[in-house]
Design brief:
The complex is a heterodimer of chains A (about 325) and B (about 475).
Chain A lengths: L5 H9 L2 H10 L5 H11 L6 H13 L1 E4 L7 H12 L13 E4 L4 H8 L5 E6 L9 H13 L4 E5 L2 H5 L3 H15 L3 E5 L2 H4 L2 H14 L3 E3 L11 H18 L4 E5 L5 H14 L10 E5 L2 H14 L12
Parallel strand pairs in A: 1-2, 1-8, 2-3, 3-4, 4-5, 5-6, 6-7, 7-8
Helix pairs in contact in A: 3-12, 4-13, 4-14, 5-6, 7-9, 9-11, 11-12, 12-13
Chain B lengths: L19 E2 L1 E3 L2 E3 L7 E5 L4 E6 L4 H19 L4 H17 L1 H12 L3 H22 L17 E5 L5 H14 L3 E5 L6 H12 L7 E3 L4 H8 L6 E5 L2 H11 L5 E5 L5 E4 L5 H13 L11 E5 L3 H13 L19 H16 L3 E4 L14 E4 L6 H4 L6 E7 L2 H9 L6 E5 L3 H10 L4 E4 L18 E2 L6 H4 L4
Parallel strand pairs in B: 1-5, 6-7, 6-9, 7-8, 9-10, 11-12, 11-16, 12-15, 14-15, 16-17
Antiparallel strand pairs in B: 2-3, 4-5, 10-18, 13-14
The chains are: A alpha/beta (about 325), B alpha/beta (about 475).
Amino acid sequence: MTATAPDTLADGIAGSEASLRKFLHGLPGVDQVGADQRAAMLATRSIKTTAKEWALDLAIRMVDLTTLEGQDTPGKIRALAAKAKRPDPDDPTCPSVAALCVYPHLVPVAAAELKGSGVHLASVATGFPSGQVPLDVKIADTKAAVTAGADEIDMVIDRGAFLSGRYLEVQEQIQAVKQAAGAAHLKVILETGELATYDNVRRASWLAMLAGADVIKTSTGKVQPAATLPVTLIMLEAVRDFRDQTGRQIGVKTAGGIRAAKDAIRYLVLAKETAGEDWLDPDWFRFGASTLLNDLLMQRAKMRTGRYSGPDYFTLD
Amino acid sequence: MAFEYAPAPESASIVDIRASYGLFINGEFVDSADGSPFKTVNPASEQVLAEIAEAGPTDVDRAVAAARAAYQKTWGPMPGAERAKYLYRIARIIQERSRELAVLESIDNGKPIRESRDVDLPLVAAHFFYYAGWADKLEYAGLGPQPRPLGVAAQVIPWNFPLLMLAWKIAPALACGNTVVLKPAETTPLSALAFAEICQQADLPPGVVNIVTGAGATGQALVEHQDVDKVAFTGSTDVGRAIARSVAGSRKKVTLELGGKAANVVFDDAALDQAVEGIVNGIFFNQGHVCCAGSRLLVQESGYDELLAKLKRRMSLLRVGDPLDKNTDIGAINSSAQLERIRTLSQIGESEGAARWTAPCPLPERGYWFAPTLFTGVSQAHRIAREEIFGPVLSVLTFRTPAEAVEKANNTPYGLSAGVWTEKGSRILWMADRLRAGVIWANTFNKFDPTSPFGGYKESGYGREGGRHGLEAYLA
């Protein structure tokens, strides 16, 4: 396999609507039954003892601790920022999470709390969660978040444009947001629950990667189904193949509906046996979650002490 | 730091293996009258598991007589609805004891617990449930207004799926009103003997199921016995031929399920990642000890490089080792004799000029192991493309057009199964019309279901097992 620089690849196929369509529709298809079966088989992996301890710590370090509610207030953000920095106040060996993920409006509050902590600050942008706003609003949304201190932007793609086959439009929007985001890390949310087919998930993954995404992300968490193992499998195959072809590594973020530590470990197994060990790092794999963190902490404490403490021993933020 | 899976072994303590086993004749375990005992070993550790009685001609005689008596007095005259109750009961007991049976199967056979737990045992129970349902509906099977059982069935099964092959043989035979004498393979007798206990537990009338253990001589005595009405055999084509010869001219009905050298045909428009999974599942499932294994990979030349790169990467992920570890993908080769055969044929592959590639994986020191291997540059003339290796060895060939794929796929004395991988539905149908094989899988491989008939063309045998067709083998 010959490596092509991503820009060369993108220039070659993304120049026009026709060539982009030809490329995306020329990607190998996904057999749904086979993909589901592979994901289900990997879910039977049994992760015990030392492997489990290692995986739990890694999973905590991969959490994008998220609150995206209409009820969010500065107080809520401050509480969550404290949790992000020190998830388990009783245990100084417990690592921090990867990032805190909030609405743009609350980025300034979060930025003040997280300053110097090493915890990244992610903000959703571009008319989250539907993406149904004009491009200039998306760009303004993004710029506002970055200016206020976000170093990661979680944008949504325009699913309407994608589903009606206007791939170039989707790509140009991602490129525009990427430019607006500047140095901030760009995560592109595909909202796979609305794309419906695995073929679409693969095409949207490639489209986002070609357009300059740093990370491709499954879902907003506002649409069901959100993250699933098979969808994440397809996306992990896409980043693996993209790196083979271009030499550029893209991250994957799975978000929405992952609540149990056991499920998080299944995703780590999926990443290991699909994309490879290189993705087992908070820079390359993330969990968008809120309740998941406490289960990870509870399982972690259980591994260390040999017994379960009640949920009251873990902070609710 | 890498994500290393810690050992996750299923506990062996849930099975109780006795030091020695007798023969199961007329509802009880008895000593052998004229055989000399042999040992069964755990292929993953080479440790002796138990001493097994060998059935000699006198024992076979006793077993057939018990089956005959049960056929005449109890099982033959019993209404189908009553027979069904026993079969349902057996199916339920199998489900209840499935964890124990899965562990036992993995210990005696060497197959990974993931497969015995998730594939073998669910299918075993499903087979009994399925044929239990037929027992009182045989008049509606399309085989005549009043189909009659044949009588006593002599059944000889292989070591690759010990309990599943037992189910394939015993469930339809009993549902149709026959009684059976079954001989499990000499390297894997333990799950059949556990099944004998299940027959006792289910209060199955004595003599309906008899299990005689032993090797080739016992099998020969059984299939050649004068008072047997039906012979059913699954195993190698050579032995199948010998059986066909020995029963020629007799009243015995015969079904044979023999070897295979299945072609797995991958077109360049296939769903690539799933095709790779299907290739791996096709040849490495159960260490390749599968008669319908996709051992000949036919790849369209235009998609060869990409597919092969992906296949090698995927093969490098296979976890070979302790069959009881829940994360093991490939277990132990069933016997030293089989390991020797796989090694010999692989060496022949190399000396005939094919390029060998073996997945980099550590193998345990004790036990019988063979790392997943593929050969490229294989031509139709190579022995590894023609002979059944019955191990984790894949021969990769190429083709250019659909017609060439069909020609190469059919160019074998066998015809048990084939696979087709393409996103084009019309091509699947076109291929299926032309491939000479009993089962054709489209965009999947090694899928089994009790409702689906299974059996071969040409030297892969005759007769069908499973589904409504499977009843025909046990009814007149």
